[in-house]
Amino acid sequence: MTSNVPKILTFAASDPTGGAGIQADLMTQTSLGCYPLSVITAITCQDTSGVSDVIPIDSLVVEKQARLILNETKIDVIKCGVMASEENIKVISEIIKDYPDVPVVIDPILSSGRGDNLALGDSLQLMIRHLFPLAEIITPNVNEGAQIVSNKNISEIDEGILFIGKSLMDLGPKNVLLTAADYQVDKKTLTNTLYCQDGGVFNFEYERLPQSFHGSGCTLASAIAAYLAQGMSIHTAVEEAQKFTIDTLKHSLVNGQGQLIPNRFFWMLSNFDEDENDLKHH
Q1: Neighbours of 121 (CB within 10 A)
Q2: Is 271 a domain residue?
Q3: Structural domains in the chain (count)
Q4: Packing angle, helices 216-229 and 21-31, rounded to 10
């Protein structure tokens, strides 16, 4: 028997489509050779087109789920997605403070791909105040980044990407990955930018895929968590996680009438030829 498989504890909401949420986290982390443990923060009612309802789990239940796991299992990385309520954010931040040596990946999800609000009440401000300073990395998209630093959409502010990235760093996370799939969508390429605690700024340019996907952000953040759990540096983890996520999108699934679903087990396809330079995803 083996006990040295990297373990990740994820706080996230359940998505019945399997496209995003805790289901996306579990699949991504498993595909990348990690053992996923999970704390459910909310139940959602949604399909591949959008979110109909979000029902937060009581914060006492959230805390009990996490404490029981953490009391018996050594966790390598903590990953946070939708936390669903102000009370949950407070509880999760207190739990994380008890494990200062465990890296934390935060995907600050504010809305669904359709624009349905997923940050209820004062959740955003509490996330900024209580969780960002505890994060090894946060992974907002450009529009989320603009809303976090200015409470406006990217189209409503004069400042550019560099301003947003540096402003996010000022909020306390060690590193920021600002993703650009939602930015300048008429361009054939997109550039994601990593801002590091040592002052380094790194750009990653990719071909823009024409389709719309449900759960790409969850996949990316969980892939970063998985690679960090395996001991990679932040730069390498971010680089490899982006490659993995792009592969999941290129081999995406049609599971409904809305957005496509990333295929986190694309490497199991009989027609998938793994490049000799790629990391093994299994």
Answers
A1: 11
A2: no
A3: 1
A4: 40
